[in-house]
Amino acid sequence: MGKPVTTSDPADEVHDAWLPSESFRALGARRVLVRGGGTLVETVVREAEAACERHGGSVRHQAHGDRAPADSVPGDGGSGDGTPGDGAFDLILALGRAAAPSWAAAGIERDGTLGAEGYALARRGGVTVVLADEPAGLLYGFFHVVRLGEAAFADAFAAQRHEPALRERMLDHWDNVDVHPVTRQVERGYSGGSIFWRDGVARGDHDRVRAYARLLAACGINAVAVNNVNVHATETRLLTDRLGDVAAIADLLRPYGIRVHLSVNFASPVALGGLPTADPLDEAVRSWWAETTRRVYASIPDFGGYVVKADSEGQPGPFGYGRSHAEGANLLAEALAPFGGTVHWRAFVYDHRQDWRDRSTDRARAAYDHFTPLDGLFRQNAVLQAKYGPMDFQAREPVSPVLAAMPATRLAVEFQATQEYTGQQWHVCYLGPLWSEVLGFRPWGPDGRTVAEVAAASGGALVAVSNAGADRFWTGHPLAQANLYAFGRLAWDPRLDPIAVLDEWITLTFPGCSSAQSEAGERLRGTLHAMMDESWRTYEQYTAPLGVGFMVRPGHHYGPDVDGYEYTSWGTYHFADRDGLGVDRTRATGTGFTGQYPKPWSDTYESLDQCPDELLLFFHHVPYTHLLHNGSTVIQHIYDTHFSGVERVARMRLAWEQIEADGLVDRDLFARVRDRLDEQLRCAREWRDQINTYFHRKSGISYQRCADTGACCAEERRPDENGASHCRCRCRRIFF
């Protein structure tokens, strides 16, 4: 049974997500001074004015060159020097030269610049101060105050400096301009239609795009690619005669510090320019890209650059001309360089026409084999964008070895916020903990750098495939908003605790959960944490075990199909037979993939004894009776975790039902989440029954004896809702 069809709610009832009016109450009830000028400062002023109009505060804007009014700065005796103190303003946001008099008075030691997006935050003498060198920093500082709420205006706190760890924090929209006959309006989109496009033309809903820009800026995202990396015929034309549509989107995103990027077709010189070739070393091709890029910047002066998927899954690329991917990327980087643009060149390159009979081929090896010989050959404004794992956004896979093997190349780590393989926004699956694990992974062991530090040191980026769409709740499942929010926050600071980030999102999105609210609010907060904190691991429990991955239905990738990809050309195999399962990727007897990692991980993954249980089947083919580190056998782990996962989802469903009476959740949002939990529970049961039945039949091994009673007697069995028979005791193990 497939999943229900996603439908969109009316666009004029868009949910406020993490920026409801109530989240601005603390700031909006205060007296605010904004000092500085420019587009982004004007955005801060408008945001502050809207908040103060709703909540009773006031705003004064002092542009560059203006002298502050005599009563503007508390405690300064009317000098207008910006000194914090007791008096006219509760919050001062000051930019650049206008901020200079406030640094020392706020107790902030000026020991260098804050950069293009950084800011300093302090509270002293009854005044909260945000100081920045550049307008973007003031915008991000403003939203930091919104996140803090009343805490921003409570006790004094010492100066804090905040700067993003990664200079580019980007969303890739897999949106099509035309409705594609297979992938529809949004490829792998689970939130209705595109925010930007509809039926071949640009959407006219500018308010929706502005609201989206606010949400992204509030969590730290500063770049968006507005079309699918699989660039079809109409999307190819966005580079030339449809460029006005892209410029219109850029105009809407610019006031929130977000630069537009465009996914381009590598063969554009042929498709658009009438050239006979797209060879990156051909002089006519180089000239075509240079002139085309010049025209792009004439229309969009702050254009971010290009995103390219080449020589992958049917997309054209430099291999067609006998050229390397460095030569292909450098062609576009050269065209972008005079304007400060960047090309994001995706490392998702592999043979999708493999012979499933040949166990020597291994899709996991592909990115490393293709790209590591090219380290140091990419131009400085070319960023190699690699998926966080070597396969394809699975619920569990190891960190890609590419991220530790290219020290002379700028690297971007790519995540998938849209839940292609993690429940497609029908299932609660908070991905913050997964991303945090990846960003904190140390490829060279405990004394080495983390993945986040590698990307930051290279001048790279963090990128996610967007999970937002034209649905009323932005992400289809309202709780999936937390993934979009968490991506932005972790991209700004990868060291953040993902559960603390989730708590931020809860507090902002559900104002009844704020600390000043009732016991009911704390029940709601507790319920959401109980449902979401471990939801990624819950999803992992009832789907693919021990890192094996890809047990999904081909095509739409929803629901279980253990052998769905086992005999296809995509290279996603588990090799289950009567004796065991898993893929041998060792150097000793397998594909040699473990050798792509530096020590100590190359040895850890190679060793059957040392390999982490959660990745065992990714690296090793083992008997069903192989003992895990926790003492369970592989087959028993499969049985037990699939039952445990379903039971966890059932508890989620019950917990959500019990918060309805408190009235702190909008009725429509409550109903949407309840309906999605119903589907999640149905689908989890389907996963449990198909996976457990498959491996029971394959292995011929039944459950161990009951942990409670020592045995499960026939008279103790009872049927469940699907007609299967279970033990009556706590273990609830199934009988076949």
UniProtKB/TrEMBL annotation:
User: What does UniProt give as GO cellular component?
Assistant: extracellular region
Q: Which GO terms describe its molecular function?
A: alpha-glucuronidase activity; xylan alpha-1,2-glucuronosidase activity
The record's listing under InterPro entries reads: A-glucoronidase_C_sf, GH, Glyco_hydro_67_C, Glyco_hydro_67_cat, Hex-like_dom2
Question: Where is each Glycosyl hydrolase family 67 C-terminal domain found?
Answer: 475-704
Q: Segment Disordered: which positions?
A: 53-84
Q: Does the keyword Hydrolase apply?
A: yes
Q: What is this protein called?
A: Alpha-glucuronidase
The organism encoding this protein is Actinocrinis puniceicyclus
